[in-house]
Amino acid sequence: MSTKSIHIVCGPTAGGKSAKALELAAALDGVIINCDSMQIYDDLPILTAQPGAEERTQAPHMLYGTLHPNDPCSAGNWREMVIPVIKEVLEAGQTPIICGGTGLYIKALMEGLSPMPDIPQEVRDRVVEHYNEAGAETFYAELEARDPVMAQRFHVNHKARIIRAMEVLEATGKSLATWQELDRDGPPGHWDFVVHKVVPEREALYERCNARFEWMVDNGALEEVEAFAEKLERGKIHHNIPLAKALGFKPLRAYINGDLSREDALTTAQRETRRYAKRQMTWFRNQI
After folding, report:
1. Average pLDDT over every residue of 110-121
2. pLDDT tens digits, 12-25
3. What CA–CA distance (Å, rounded) separates 269 from 276?
4. What contacts 24+ positions apart, CB below 8 Å, involve 279-282?
5. Residue 287 has pLDDT above 90, yes or no
6. Do residue 176 and residue 222 come from a single domain?
């Protein structure tokens, strides 16, 4: 079977990935496929920087705005969605261009994942609620007693990781370490991944983060946040969902509620975005 090239455009937020993906799509008869954990959802398209109408006329785009905010999407869920899409694009004689900054999704595609079942949302909610009630030290002590192997890998302050370890234990009855030891389900052997890392100089990236957020606010992000917050308050969208953690959502909601000035909300959101971009730069430098 002949080798098939899959291009991956990755890097920090606001770094210019979409422009690079469009450039490749024009040159390679490409289809751009989303690899961003926030852009997979069908709400907050402006705040999550989904491709606009003009970009979508330049090349086909897939897996953008695909899921309802209440639907969980792990690296495994995304991988299950993207592999059939990649196969469909290749069978049509076109070039798949995976575009996004969610590094764990990229690794799941390129390296495969251990065959671990998805964690039901009710289990996630229950574990998070218990963490909040018990506190970090008590919660960590419980994990240490039940799953010493995973506990010793983390510090008590590694909140997300110790919660994840407990979620897996609660849902499956097995340690996350046990699942991780199983053979990974990798990609087809004839797929060749061509990686394009888009990482501007730090100061230029920070300026892009600031400017893009100002653009979002001026072009509908506030209205999006207001409508989304109303759905949360009415119970149409669950609390603690990933999309409610989208960069800038909390400060803009605080501004709408009168708890922050517009200037403070914008400054806070820009700072959040810069810090996130910095963490992404470090991750991509070391992992991809």
Report:
1. 82
2. 999 999 999 999 99
3. 11
4. 280/11, 280/12, 280/13, 280/101, 280/103, 281/11, 281/12, 281/199, 281/202, 281/205
5. no
6. no
15 and 72 part of one domain? yes
pTM of the model: 0.84
| Pairwise CA distance, residues 165 & 155, whole Å | 12
- Under 8 Å between Cβ of 205 and 12: yes
Is 224 within a domain? yes
Verify that 271 and 153 share a domain, yes or no. no
Same domain, 189 and 209: no
Single-letter code of the amino acid located at 251:
P
pLDDT in tens, 177-194: 998 888 777 898 899 999
* Other Cβ atoms within 10 Å of 184 Cβ, number: 12
Range name among 29-33, 74-78, 210-214, 265-269 with the lowest pLDDT average: 74-78
Tokens of 125: 């909610």
How far apart (Å, rounded) are the C-alpha atoms in residues 38 and 171? 25
- Judge whether 11 lies within some domain: yes
User: What burial letters (b/e) apply to 133-171, b meaning 16+ CB within 10 Å?
Assistant: eeeeeebbebbbeebeebbeebebeeeeebbbbbbbbbb
| Exposure letters 215-249 (e unless 16+ CB within 10 A, then b) | ebbeeebbebbeebbeebeeeebbeebebbebbbb
Rounded to 10 deg, the angle between the 249-256 and 221-234 helix axes is 80
Q: What pLDDT does residue 1 have?
A: 63
191 lies in some domain: yes
* 76 or 29: which leads in pLDDT: 29
The domain that holds 88 is classified in CATH as 3.40.50.300
Parent domain of 72: 4-115+185-197
Bridging pattern class, strands 191-197 and 4-10? parallel
Provide the token pair at 122. Answer: 């009710």
Of the CA atoms within 13 Å of residue 189, those in its CB half-sphere come to 1
Residue 9 β-bridge partners: 99, 196
